[in-house]
Write a structure and sequence with these properties.
The protein is of the alpha+beta class and 864 residues long. It has 26 helices and 27 strands. The strands form 5 sheets. The protein has a 6-stranded mixed β-sheet with strand order 9-3-2-10-1-11. A 6-stranded mixed beta barrel has the order 13-15-24-16-23-19.
Length: 864
């Protein structure tokens, strides 16, 4: 170690506070960079594990390939592995408990299928020979006769409709036929958890066996040597002629997604986040090297006078930076890994709540590091330190030797420039005048302190804005509901089963149910008068078109049970008397619309100005006892709809107007909050009526696509959900219509908690950097002015006068820092707004709370 290096170490030891603050700054900087890079790799690994556990590890999917197509796919260059599920046929269920699922579907697996696809065993083993089958868990729960170890005989054949073989993508139709049946014997060797490759609308429960007949059509799931090539594979001929898909969740988790909206938000916000960290870190470490420039300049002058070259002094500065980095960077990397590890451990349960319950083997959120992530954080930290040290050193080394020893360059005296105002004299006396003159004669120290405060304000406000935009985006995209469970009956089920009231009573009596309600939904088109539309609504023309003074809007007409409707009126503080006329029933408009436009952006807005007007509502009415056969052109070009009677096959033709029922809706009031028995659709205008007004409003005509929904709150929604499944099965209703919304609400709360932890953790670390920056700058500045303070006291400045002088300095520091910091922070907030608005249609917001907190914090720190 040469003499300059030893001198550098002694200088660091002598200025312990500045050295410690610099090391702390490096540690905080590297810790934050490590936390960002490690959290990205951990979350990316977690999302990838979730995707593989729920959907499989495939990249591209091609459904229903014939043998020639399978052979061509297996020979494709770039394909790594192919999982095949052959369509071996269907078998009818003897005891149909779900009208939309009356079949067993027999799928034949190749060797790669169980490894690539989500075939998670609940009990038993995988089939090894033909005739051994796995049954899905939801089949085993409804049909005990398919337990492990049982043997049964099935007639396996094809579902046909108009000469076309139907698949699992084709829902059940009463017009389809069952053909080519052959007897086969099967033995159940295992039960697997219901998998995503069986769609909820699939007409058959998927039984898995070994594929021996490879001449049958097959669903192919492929992995590519380069995952992104899956997009090109499914788009090329002849595969594009089949049903194809790309595993978008897998692509997003691995960074291979082609979603421009997703990438713009992810990369935009990520870049701003890294920029904030680096900017704050450089500012802190730079000030640690530059605030004591006067002392360092004198040292450089003395060293130069005794023969030290610029190259040697530059190397000594580099040695100092590397020495501090050798301490700060390893500690920072370790602290970042430890901090993010503890954070992810704390968030393990919320993540499990958000995505775990629907998985056979819930994936735990664990710390996942990579040498690339740690190396990037360490390298960025080292570059930050070197840049922060090199810039002030370069300036100091350019100063001539005599000026460096005398330190005359830092102090510029000009009578005109150090002139102070009489207001300063009257408010702060001679002490304030002295402080003001000192600032003007030694601008570098003053400027460094103001810059530190400026950086602190920018970091805090921009970090808070980052958190707010993230939270706002999440709450806008995700649905919220105040009920736990929902069961729906479609129009054709209401026609076939008129005992729905008995079902509602039975479900309401399930143990643990605390609240219940029902509503009937009528979907149609609403003609909203143009003069009643909110003129401040942005993007309205992208969703609705104005014609003849009205906007034609997608509408939901809901008839809520009378008890719940009355409760809703009381909650919304509306007068119930306005809705009690049975001959002229009035409604409430629920005015909150959210939709995703063609550009992929989510938008939310209020459509109406106020209530007190009438709107025309049109709903499609399918003729009772008829089914649509074809649509033909009339003589004047008008579309004619030909319906066939289900009873005798006779035909009847209807015009468009004859198939649409129109009625007038009287809107008495406009509400913004949905009642208990309303699903969070939010994709159109919703009109609410009491259930007793249903026949009067629609004129006794039932819509073709009406839906009756039942809503429940329960003490334990998961237990109530399972009991309701039993009730539905015992009464002969389909179980697929039961939805556990509370699980989605828990997922939303978990997501909010996760965002809060990351956001506020980030803000806390940024605030630490900002406070360390200000503390280091001001304390070092005060320490360098000890000689000046001693001189002032020697000429009679009292402690009270000295305090007045410091108060003046504090005010000057604070006002200057805020004057520059707040506009810069607002500019950075606007950049965040532009980044977020590429994925969500959000309004620009001024972070008033953050501004107020930053103003108070700045003055608190400088006065302290």
């Amino acid at each position: 170690m040469n003499i300059l290096h030893r001198y550098t170490l002694k200088s660091l030891a002598r200025n312990r506070v500045r050295t410690l603050v610099t090391i702390i700054g490096i540690v905080l900087s590297v810790a934050m960079l490590t936390a960002v890079t490690t959290s990205i790799t951990s979350l990316q690994n977690y999302l990838l594990s979730i995707t593989i556990a729920s959907d499989g590890a495939w990249h591209g999917r091609i459904m229903g390939l014939d043998k020639a197509g399978v052979d061509a796919l297996l020979a494709e260059e770039g394909v790594s592995e192919t999982a095949l599920l052959y369509h071996l046929g269907y078998a009818k269920l003897d005891d149909v408990k779900n009208d939309t699922k009356p079949y067993l579907f027999l799928g034949g697996m190749n060797e790669a299928f169980p490894q690539m696809m989500p075939v998670h065993l609940v009990e038993g083993r995988l089939p090894q020979v033909e005739g051994e089958v796995l049954v899905p868990s939801h089949l085993a729960a409804l049909y005990p006769e398919y337990a492990v170890g049982t043997t049964f005989t099935l007639t396996v054949g094809d579902r046909m409709l108009n000469g076309v073989r139907l698949t699992q993508f084709d829902g059940y139709s009463v017009e389809e036929t069952f053909e080519n049946g052959q007897l086969a014997i099967f033995t159940v060797v295992g039960v697997y958890y219901k998998a995503s490759f069986e769609r909820s609308s699939a007409p058959g429960y998927t039984l898995l066996t070994v594929a021996n007949d490879t001449s049958r059509p097959a669903d192919a799931y492929v992995t590519m040597h380069r995952p992104g090539d899956a997009y090109d594979l499914v788009e090329k001929s002849p595969y594009a002629e089949y049903r194809t898909a790309v595993n978008t969740d897998y692509m997003m988790a691995t960074g291979q997604s082609r979603s421009s909206s997703f990438r713009s938000v992810l990369y935009g916000m990520g870049s701003i986040l890294i920029l904030i960290i680096v900017f704050g870190s450089v500012s802190l470490i730079y000030n640690s090297f530059s605030i004591s420039l006067s002392e360092r300049t004198k040292q450089f002058g003395i060293l130069s006078s005794v023969g030290a070259t610029r190259r040697q002094m530059r190397r000594s500065v580099l040695f100092e930076a590397l020495f501090l980095s050798c301490i700060g960077i390893p500690v920072g990397v370790g602290s970042g890994v430890l901090g993010i590890g503890l954070t992810l451990r704390f968030l393990e349960k919320p993540f499990l709540t958000m995505v775990g319950p629907d998985l056979a083997n819930p994936v735990k959120l664990t710390l996942h590091t990579s040498w690339q992530a740690l190396a990037i954080a360490a390298l960025l930290g080292l570059v930050t330190v070197l840049v922060s040290a090199a810039l002030p050193a370069r300036r100091a080394l350019r100063i001539p030797v005599i000026e460096a020893i005398r330190q005359t360059r830092d102090i510029k005296i000009s009578p005109r420039k150090v002139r102070t105002s009489k207001l300063t004299l009257s408010l702060f006396g001679i002490e304030g005048v002295l402080a003001s003159k000192n600032f003007k004669r030694s601008k570098k120290q003053y400027r460094a302190t103001v810059v530190s405060l400026f950086v602190s304000v920018v970091l805090f406000i921009s970090a808070s804005s980052f958190s707010q935009y993230t939270m706002m985006s999440a709450s806008d995209v995700l649905d919220r509901a105040d009920f736990d469970l929902c069961y729906e009956l479609r129009q054709y089920e209401l026609v076939e089963r008129e005992d729905w009231a008995e079902l509602f009573t039975a479900l309401s009596r399930v143990s643990g149910v605390t609240k219940s309600a029902y509503s009937y939904e009528y979907v149609g088109e609403i003609a909203v008068p143009a003069d009643k539309v909110n003129s401040k609504t942005q993007g309205l023309e992208d969703l609705f078109s104005e014609e003849n003074g009205v906007y034609n809007v997608v509408g939901y007409v809901l008839f809520i049970d009378d008890v719940n409707f009355l409760s809703f009126l009381e909650q919304a503080k509306l007068d119930p008397a306005a809705y009690r006329n049975p001959e002229q029933p009035k409604s409430v408009a629920l005015d909150f619309i959210r939709y995703q436009g063609a550009d992929g952006r989510f938008r939310t807005f209020r459509l109406l100005q106020s209530g007190g007007f009438a709107m025309e509502v049109r709903g499609f009415q399918e003729p009772e006892g008829y089914t649509l056969k074809e649509v033909v052109d009339g003589e004047n070009g008008e579309a004619l709809y030909v319906y066939e009677s289900l009873a005798d096959g006779s035909e009847k033709t209807f015009t468009n107007d004859e198939l649409w029922h129109t009625f007038t809706a009287e809107i008495a009031d406009v509400a913004k909050e949905a009642p208990f028995s309303v699903s969070p659709n939010y994709y159109g205008l919703t009109i609410l009526y009491p259930f007793s007004a249903r026949e009067t409003v629609v004129g006794g005509q039932e819509p073709a696509d009406g839906t009756l929904r039942m809503y429940f709150n329960a003490e334990n929604h998961r237990k109530a959900y399972n009991e309701m499944l039993t009730v539905l099965s015992s009464m002969g209703y389909r179980t697929s219509g039961l939805i556990d919304y509370a699980a989605s609400v828990e997922a939303l709360r978990s997501l909010v908690l996760i965002l809060n932890v990351f956001s506020y953790g980030f803000i806390a670390l940024i605030s630490l950097i900002a406070m360390a920056n200000v503390f280091n700058t001001i304390s070092t500045n005060i320490a360098l002015r000890r000689r000046e303070f001693a001189m002032l006291k020697s000429i009679g400045v009292t402690d009270k006068g000295f305090q007045r002088m410091m108060n003046y300095e504090c005010l000057l520091y604070g006002f200057k820092g805020l004057m520059y910091g707040i506009p810069a922070a607002l500019g950075l907030t606007y950049l965040m707004f532009r980044s977020v608005s590429s994925g969500w249609a959000v309004a620009f917001m001024l972070p008033w709370k953050s501004i107020v907190i930053s103003v108070a914090s700045v003055f608190a720190v400088v006065f302290a």
